[in-house]
Amino acid sequence: MSQIDSIINILFNIYFYMILFYVLMSWLPNVRDNFIGELLGKLVEPYLTPFRKIIPPLFGTIDFSPVVALLVLELAVNGLRSVLFYLMG
């Protein structure tokens, strides 16, 4: 069980920091246009897009959807851990 939990934790942390780095890249002009920005966009945007459709930007520019997306990701990971703990003991 601890090995599976470690793998889940590592994958969660990687995706969490990918989203965080992608959001921080939006503050700098033209950073998303390089290879890393495009790669992160391809990996992160499919997850962020549904949240952006539901949650409109505040004041036209401030986007809180990544915060909600990260909270939902955290809840999903905790739920997965609970299910695995229940099934595997």
Automatic annotation (TrEMBL):
Regions that span the bilayer: 7-28, 67-87
Kindly state one GO CC term assigned in the UniProt record: membrane
For this protein's source organism, the top of the classification is: Bacteria, Bacillati, Bacillota, Bacilli, Bacillales
Q: Which InterPro entries match?
A: CCB3/YggT
Could you tell me what this protein is called? YggT family protein
| Entry-linked PANTHER family | PROTEIN COFACTOR ASSEMBLY OF COMPLEX C SUBUNIT B CCB3, CHLOROPLASTIC-RELATED, YLMG HOMOLOG PROTEIN 2, CHLOROPLASTIC
Q: Please indicate which superkingdom the organism of origin belongs to.
A: Bacteria
The family classification in the record reads: Belongs to the YggT family.
Alphabetically ordered keywords of this record:
Membrane, Transmembrane, Transmembrane helix
Q: Does the keyword Transmembrane apply?
A: yes
Query: Is the keyword DNA-binding assigned to this protein?
Result: no
